[in-house]
Amino acid sequence: MNTLSPRAGDNHAEPSAVIVSVEFTKQIKGEEEDEKRKEKEKEKKKKKKKKKEVENKKKKKKEEEEEGG
Question: So which domain of life are we looking at (predicted)?
Fold first, then answer.
């Protein structure tokens, strides 16, 4: 007797096991895609922050030159 079967004496439980496996695979892929998306967002934020820091340094340097100039 197959223990995966929802009914006693039913020897055709493979389809339900396959469905569960497919759903689990989809869930894992979805989680992996979420992780990739989050990583990309982090990288974008880092780049944006770095760009802003560079702009602020340039702005500050320009202001100092104008004051001293």
Answer: Eukaryota
Q: What CA–CA distance (Å, rounded) separates 47 from 50?
A: 5
- Amino acid identity for residue 14 in this structure: E
**pTM for the whole structure:** 0.52
Among residues 57, 62, 63, 33, the alpha carbon closest in space to that of 49 is found at 57
- Terminal CA-CA length for the chain: 91
The position carrying tokens 């880092």 is 46
- Residue pLDDT, tens place only, 8-39: 555 555 667 777 888 889 999 999 999 999 99
